[in-house]
Amino acid sequence: MRTLPKSAKIFLFVLILTSINLIAQEKKFGIVIHGGAGRIVKENMSAEREAEYSNKLKEVLETGYKILAEGGSALDAVEAVIKLMEDSPLFNAGKGAVLTEKGVAELDASIMDGKTLSAGAVAGIKHVKSPITLARLVMEKSPHVMMISAGAEEFAKQNGLEMVDNEYFITKERWESYQRALQREEERKKTEKHGTVGAVALDKEGNIAAGTSTGGMMMKKFGRVGDAPIIGAGTYANNKTCGVSATGSGEYFIRIGVAKDISSLIEYKGMSLKNASEEVIKKVGDLGGNGGVICLDKFGNVAMPFNTEGMYRGYYINGEKPVIKMYKDE
Ligand code: ASP
What we know:
CATH topology: Glutamine Phosphoribosylpyrophosphate, subunit 1, domain 1
Distance between the termini: 56 Å
Shape: globular
Low-confidence stretches: none
CATH superfamily: (Glycosyl)asparaginase
Mean pLDDT: 93
Number of helices: 10
Order of helices and strands: HEHHEEHEHHHEEEEHHHEEEE
Bound molecules: aspartic acid
Strand content: 15-25%
Largest sheet: 8 strands, mixed
CATH architecture: 4-Layer Sandwich
Strand order of the largest sheet: 4-3-2-6-5-1-11-12
Structural class: alpha+beta
CATH class: Alpha Beta
Helix content: 25-40%
């Protein structure tokens, strides 16, 4: 060492420092979630209700983060957190789903693996407790991408998934708001909250997965399918770009192909996640639709734009603190 010229010593010193820095800099991984967008305003929210939502969102984020921190896959994290939200009556997915014009819960869900671009989706589900698990089963255990109603439910039974009566999904609150909606269309609009759930995760291997689960729109027509189970509209994931899960007036999200559009703007135009997602949400608004998206890219960047008064949302990325938000200007 003593015989080395001074410049070589400096070079070696810088090299060692850089390597230490690189080792210390862990690869990015993490999870982003949403619990629906809509008229979520502080004035209408009691302190207890706000605490219920923020505690649940915190629990969901921590569950997903733990799976990823322990080396679990993005797909496992997405399925687990969506299942937790489906089981909670707070959201419009699984238990607590909104009802069709006939007063029945009809559920839709989808999941996508950004590594292989494989995807699974289900629609019109009335008796499977966890539609997101059924969507994953369609992806992994069938040659198809999408299955609907009775056929999807038969497939669920064959694969041993938990089946429930339709009443299981119907909470008192949803039933009452359905009754009000039957009486007055205006009332329905005032209380309109989308409440769909979704998640996007990036694991330690650099794989991205996204998923969405919903009861759809209150008073939807029997048989109506929204954007949540449509790959490219409500859900998309590609390791080369990002993962996206949407919530909002599904018909508009389908017409624009929201989730794939965001990924394509990044892939073909080299746009940032933030710019791409904001541009697409603006397109939704220009067409007359409302809602939002959660997005996570391969670098661990997060974007969560929406054009409604609020959106239940949060993220937890390694090296950062978990973040939970509900209202617009937070
Ligand atoms: N996007 C869902 C649908 O149209 C509804 C929602 O997000 O609440 O079915």
